[in-house]
Specification:
By secondary structure, the chain is an alpha/beta fold. The chain has helices at about 20, 30-40, 40-55, 95-100, 120-130, 145-155, 165-175; strands at about 10-15, 60, 105-110, 130-135, 160-165. α3 packs parallel to α7 (about 165-175).
Length: about 180
């Protein structure tokens, strides 16, 4: 056991749970609103986090940002050691793999946004690194029904060990 996490442990990876996607006043929420409502994304994300915490499953947040030169304009105290990294998945240019490996995590449960971009690329990269991947199909959303379908029905089955609903996953915790 390292850091309180048993070897071979499952971790929940939440990708991009930004207010701009999830809050009613978010900049991108209107573009996701149909998908968020169709599968109950927000309620399911809350349920996933609550269940993970109750089961003492560690939660890792995978946050992406495509920066522009204007992001740090006017910052007087920007540290030379804090560099803006453009990444399209949670592993690239981050310490996520180190954190997971140092805690003996071998299984990832994936949820977050957006289904066919950052969530998918993070999960796929995790698969390529040898992790067992479980995707939660109702704890995500996409900008269109077609993109959601392409992700959950066409692409995810190519790398995910299992694709479950939130309720199906929560039931596995009590087994």
């Amino acid at each position: 056991m390292q850091g309180g996490i048993p070897e071979g442990k499952t971790a929940l990876v939440l990708t991009d749970p930004y207010n701009d996607f999830l809050d009613p006043t978010g900049k991108l929420t209107p573009r996701l609103s149909d998908s968020l409502a169709a599968v109950g994304t927000i309620a399911n994300l809350l349920k996933v986090v609550k269940a993970a915490r109750a089961a003492k499953i560690p939660i890792f947040y995978s946050m992406h940002h495509q920066h522009t030169p204007h992001d740090y304009m006017g910052w007087i105290y920007k540290s030379a050691t804090n560099q803006a990294l453009d990444n399209s998945n949670g592993f690239q240019s981050t310490d996520l793999e180190y954190q997971l490996r140092s805690h003996g995590v071998t299984k990832l449960v994936m949820a977050g946004l957006v289904a066919n971009t950052c969530l998918e690329s993070t999960a796929r990269y995790g698969y390529e690194l040898g992790y067992h991947i479980t995707m939660l199909k109702d704890a995500t959303a996409a900008f269109s029904a077609e993109q959601y379908h392409a992700a959950t029905q066409v692409v995810w089955p190519l790398f995910a060990s299992s694709i479950l609903t939130t309720d199906e996953w929560v039931k596995t915790l009590s087994v």
